[in-house]
Design goal:
Blueprint lengths: L6 H33 L13 H34 L7 H20 L7 H27 L5
Helix pairs in contact: 1-2, 1-4, 2-3, 3-4
The structure holds protoporphyrin IX containing FE (2 copies).
């Protein structure tokens, strides 16, 4: 690849990251709603907008799928862009941060599919997503640092 600059690619990365964080936020909110309606014995937890549990679950699934796709897109962009520019990978801690985020998102999505059937799946799902918050912060920060060298 002989492109004048990769800045357009890193712009896509920054936008995708923004959307991923928005998806994460909606997942945290809808996940919390599901947890509350599942554990509210006695005083029932009223879901907003008159929604039923299945509608919240569908929205959670939709956002989850979007977040997984966006993170895989970011991995793809990062690898293609770095290989195109340097011809090799591993130029900063951003690589480790990126791989950790991808691993956590995959574990979260796989554990989610096991939630009704297996007892360990729910704590694993919620636990990986809490760690994912920190990993997201790290990948955003390190991405913001490395993108500086491409700026004019
Ligand atoms: C990777 C994408 C994700 C997928 C595919 C996904 C999917 C699911 C599924 C299928 C359930 C079980 C719903 C049920 O039948 O009760 C669930 C529950 C839950 N998820 Fe997610 N989720 C994702 C990401 C997240 C994130 C990022 C968070 C938090 C920031 C989160 C928080 C929760 C919570 C709190 C529950 C409820 C657990 C409970 O009832 O105790 N999820 N998720
Ligand atoms: C989930 C989010 C992300 C993942 C999984 C990810 C993944 C990666 C990976 C694997 C690389 C190759 C790193 C290397 O071999 O050294 C990379 C490079 C890069 N990424 Fe990301 N990235 C993410 C978010 C971001 C964000 C938010 C930005 C900021 C705009 C960004 C900007 C960059 C840049 C500029 C490089 C080139 C690295 C360099 O020149 O040293 N990335 N990314």
């Amino acid at each position: 690849m002989n492109l004048p600059s990769f800045i357009w690619l890193w712009k896509i990365a920054a936008w995708s990251m923004g959307l991923s964080l928005l998806a994460y936020l909606l997942l945290a909110v809808t996940g919390f709603w599901m947890l509350r309606s599942r554990t509210s014995n006695g005083t029932p937890f009223i879901l907003p907008f008159g929604w039923g549990t299945s509608q919240v679950r569908s929205l959670h699934y939709l956002m989850g799928g979007s977040m997984v796709s966006l993170v895989l897109l970011l991995l793809f962009i990062g690898i293609i862009g770095t290989l195109g520019h340097f011809g090799s990978l591993g130029h900063s801690s951003h690589l480790v941060a990126g791989l950790i985020v991808v691993a956590l998102v995959v574990v979260s999505a796989i554990s989610a599919t096991q939630i009704p059937a297996r007892r360990w799946a729910r704590p694993l799902h919620v636990g990986t997503n809490i760690i994912l918050f920190i990993a997201f912060a790290w990948v955003s920060f390190s991405g913001w640092i490395v993108v500086q060298k491409y700026l004019p």
